[in-house]
Amino acid sequence: MADTLYRTHPLENRRAALAGLSGGLTVLAEDPVAAVNLRIDPDGPGAAALGRTLGTALPVEPNTWTHTCEGQLIWLGPDEWLVTSSTAQPLEFEQELGWVVSAFDGAAIDVSAQRTSIRLRGPLARELLSLGCSLDLRPSAFPAGACAQTQVGHTGVLLLALGAEDFRLFVRQSFAAYLADWVLDAAEEFRDQRGEPT
Predict the structure, then answer these.
(1) Which of 177, 193, 170, 82 is nearest to 119 (CA)?
(2) Among 16, 22, 29, 140, which residue has the least CB neighbours within 10 Å?
(3) Residue 14 in 3-state DSSP?
(4) Interval 149-181: pLDDT, tens
């Protein structure tokens, strides 16, 4: 009889601890999404074709992202984006986008297994991130719609501002547990602010 392998979330054994934070901080280990790395000339006809496929234009302003019908389209470089989908199957998503960009000398590579994401929400989320990130995270400098490839707690992340008190951190799966532990440790700074006993 063949053994059956089941996919386990890289933060499965930390979900309860992260979800247990309360008060001004909500932290979630998010479910996996399909993710494709795209390379295409932003000024060529391929960018327009890709925009029609995704239902939104490619964000060309550095360090910005936008919504698609099923996920997010994130600027990574002058001719590089990460697109996610919460409903597509990874290889089918790569194939669908590959058909579009290959006609214009572009590339689409499935990177779904590369990263996982952690969501931080609440009045203390921005302050907690500031403990481990050198970026200016004030709303005037890092508003909703901003993104950056940076470090949080000495871990490389792709940080997205979803709202004034809402952030998503994409982190490589091999560093996800370390980042989750850093978040849990940093949250101790705010234990009394969260209404918990000191």
Answers:
(1) 170
(2) 140
(3) helix
(4) 999 999 999 999 999 999 999 999 999 999 999
One-letter identity of residue 15: R
CATH (residue range 34-110): 3.30.70.1520
**pLDDT of 197 strictly over 50:** no
pTM comes to: 0.90
Domain 12-31+114-189 classification at class level: alpha beta
Any idea how long the chain is?
198
Question: CA 151 to CA 145: how far, in whole Å?
Answer: 18
Burial 178-198 (b: 16+ CB within 10 A, else e): ebbebbeebbeebeeebeeee
23 contacts 161 by C-beta, under 8 angstroms: no
